[in-house]
Hints:
Helix content: 10-25%
Low-confidence stretches: 1-20
Shape: globular
Signal peptide: 1-19
Organism: Gibberella intermedia (Bulb rot disease fungus)
Number of helices: 5
CATH topology: Neuraminidase
Keywords: Signal
Radius of gyration: 19 Å
Order of helices and strands: HEEEEEEEHEEHEEEEEEEEEEEEEHEEEH
Distance between the termini: 26 Å
Strand order of the largest sheet: 18-22-21-20-19
CATH architecture: 6 Propeller
Protein name: Trichothecene biosynthesis protein
Structural class: mainly beta
CATH superfamily: TolB, C-terminal domain
Amino acid sequence: MKHTLLVSLIASLILAASASNYPTSRCPPISGDILFRNEFQLYPSYYRWDYQRCVLYISAIYNASIVIWDPYSSSIQRVVSIPGISHNALEASDKRLSGIVLDSTNNLLSAVVEADEFFLTGGNDVSGDNFVVKVDLNNFAINMINLTTTTKGQYGAFIDIDNGLSGDLYVNGAYPSSILHIDCSDQVSPFYIREPTTAPRPYGFGGVVRFHDTLIANDNTNNQLVRFTLDGGNSSPVVIPQTNYHSFSAGTALSLPQRYGGRVLLQAEDILAENTTGVSVFSSTDGWETAKFVGFIESIDRKLEPASVAISQTTARDIGDRIYSSVLFYDNKINPAMAGNRTDFALRDITDSIDSLLQANGLNM
Length: 365
């Protein structure tokens, strides 16, 4: 009994500390869908909210650039083009820009530039150079870090990124599962690689998110959430046992919205067998030693669009005190790794749906 109480107390302290570590916003509140009208080929995919500057950093995935969006005036403040990488969305290029993370302490924005060969071949081809791009938000100077110098083209499909404990970064690869570590001097080293790395490669880690000294990934190969301990010197994944087990095979970005103090995990997920996409919701009361699957929220865009329109959920995370989700449309029928001619997009406010789901499961977050 004493041991159980001690474990519960420690978990409560961890979760309380987690809530205090999130940034305090000075921005006016935002609610309701964020709409992008007449923004030709924007295709907002991944994004991060700046709690100090009150702007949204968006990956315009198909032209491999970063768009800085003011949601209060519904306007683009700046487009950050990456030399030698960014391009016209209908121009032949294997470069796309996916995951983004903000280091507010050092005023750095980091983004993943992926080579799209993996997407077109189901992971059989992981050639092409992959990068992490760092943008200094003080002067918009750009620093490019080549990941392929480390991987030697043996594994790839780098998709998402999160901050480490002290100005470093972790990037997840999907074919096969891998995580690269980038230290404060921009040196890249393998943190975890699943062998073998030869084709055919299974779809592995779709996303990565840090909770204190724990790194959480979604292992699509084994249909499990897994965790790594960052300060323990052991970079082997440990399965996070689930109550009400949810099997997944096409999960992507992960997030821990500050609204719930690190106790709720969101996974962008496609459910291929049902031709649908949306957000899976998990909860934890012990610092992600274990998890409970709470439910699945189907994408509004999937409901609105005909079944013939190809859509994938890309991310779900907080903007201010609300939770938003984004989808990616595959409009180009000739090359789905390139843009179509779409002009209108939306980030959907799914906060109320998540809150209702948690409450229905007896969770008062």
